[in-house]
Every structure is written in C-alpha cells, then in structure tokens.
Amino acid sequence: MTTSTLQIPKSMHFNLIGKGGSVVRDLQEKFNVRITIPKRDENSNQITLIGKAPDVQKAQQAIEKIVGFKVTSQPIIKSSIEVPKEKHGQLIGKGGNILRDIQTRFSVIITIPKREDESNLIVLEGYAIGIKTAKEEISRILGSGTKVEVKEEIEEKNDVPEKLDLISQPISEAFFFPETDGSQFSRFLDYIRSATKTLDICVFTITDDAISRAIEQMFGQGVAVRVITDDDTSAQQGSDIEEFRKLGIAVKMDKSPFHMHHKFLIIDNLCLLNGSFNWTKQARENNCENIMITNDKKFVQLYSDHFNKMWNDTKNFFP
Description:
Elements: E1 2-7, H1 13-17, H2 22-31, E2 34-36, E3 46-51, H3 53-67, E4 77-82, H4 88-92, H5 97-106, E5 108-111, E6 121-126, H6 128-142, E7 149-154, E8 172-177, H7 183-193, E9 198-203, H8 209-220, E10 224-229, H9 231-234, H10 241-247, E11 250-254, E12 263-267, E13 271-275, H11 281-286, E14 289-294, H12 297-311, E15 317-318
C-alpha cells in the first residue's frame, strides 16, 4: 500500500467532498483508494490517499482536475496584496478567463472582493513558489504604473499536530461522555495521533469515522497498527473493520460465542487508554461513558501482556 499526503487549500475541500459526500465516494470507488479529508472545523489542509501506487496516482490526477491545478505535499500559505479597486477587472478578465489562467498556471486560489465590497485586498492561497510567481504575473498584467502592495504574509499552516508527551511526566487523565464542547474527544484523538511506533487497539466495535481517520492517518505514517475486535460487531453496518483490512491494517477477531468486550488502547507501549467507551459516535454523543488515561508502567505492561496473549491465541482469535 502507498500513502500520499497532499496539501490542498481548505476552501477547495467542499469541491472534493461534494453534496452528501458524493464526489469523494465516487473517487474512492472508481480508483479503489481511501481518501481522508479533514472535517470543516479541523484546521488542516491535509488530504491523505491510501491504496496501491497506480491507483493513488490516478486518484491524485482526478483530484487535480477537480481543484483546477497541480497539488503537492508542500505547506499551504496565504498572502494578501492591495490592488486599486479599478484594476480588479484587469485581473478577472472576460468571463474570469485571466483569473482562471493565473490560478491554473501557478496552483493558487485567488479571492477578489466583490464589486460592492469596499476592500482593495486580494487574497492568494497556495504553495510558496506559486504565490511568488503569481504576484509577479499580477504585477506584469497590471503594468509598471500600478502599485501592488503586499499587506500580509500568513505563516505556513502546520498540518501535523504536535504529539503529546507520553514519557516525561506522569499522565493521570479521565474523559467523560457525553460532553458539551468536544474538547475531550479532540484530546482523545490527539492521543491516537501521538503514536510514533505502535497502536495496539482492543475494542468491541469501531464505527466512528473520526477515530478511524486518525488510525488510518497513523498507519499511513508508518505506525504499526494491530486491532482486536468482536466478530459480530465487525460485520455490522457502519463498522470500519473491513476498510482497515483493505488498507493492510492487521485485524483479529474472536471466534467464540462470547463477546470480545474490551475497550482499551496502548500507544507505543507507553500509554494506556481504558474504560467503558465504545468507539462509536453514539457512545460519545449519547451515552454515559468514560476513558482513563495513564502512563503508569505497571498498568501499561499488564494490558500489553494481555493484548499480546490474545493476539497470539489462535484457538480463540482468527485473522
């Protein structure tokens, strides 16, 4: 499997998602790839494609046709320039032809204020080299007699969240659901994204796409992921287990008449998350649930030993 990480301006993400997710679904089915797009409230431009190398390449080409320019893994930056209002039409061109040409050639998104707006500020969003050359082209089009003033350079967005420190200080946290602001669930995802080596997951069911995306993101970054889950729930509607299998994530399920009802996670063999919390949207939004987090070595080792015992138990668990 190949993982490709692309940086695409947030303003273009809706074009890739489509109404009701129709566009991204079609892309995934047509090219047999998994595409992860950040939610609207996530401050990220990063889109991840996972699949066979030729399929990922074809999917990327299709994405480029949708957004209208070549995409890369370079960080996205913004730059604002001030151009006299009476000159905006020169940049737009007949039917927007000049504006489209600049955006396509230099891989930038250009936002020009509407005619009724008082602002002279034009915003460019894209890759650093593209923005630089687009500015030069804008100056050329407007002519030497027009002053183009750079008003603001916005720093590159860091789409790789800072990983939590799992080692240097004792960790003693507890999350309780349902919650009102989503902060605890966000921190739960931060713990998953803090993995650098391994994620050992032992949960009854996984249907929450936000959690699955975080797992797939770590897998795409080279983290070794192992999942133990219940055989009955893995076949239920909404389960992400089969998708994990397709991506190459190692999965095992119980083959007994009893439920595999554990809900715990071990990160890098350093940190343990454990509690009643099933990895479902229902659990985090509507159920009374809890998660306990600790990096106490004794607890982590006890759960790690039990996970490995289950993983190696061919009598009661099957791949």
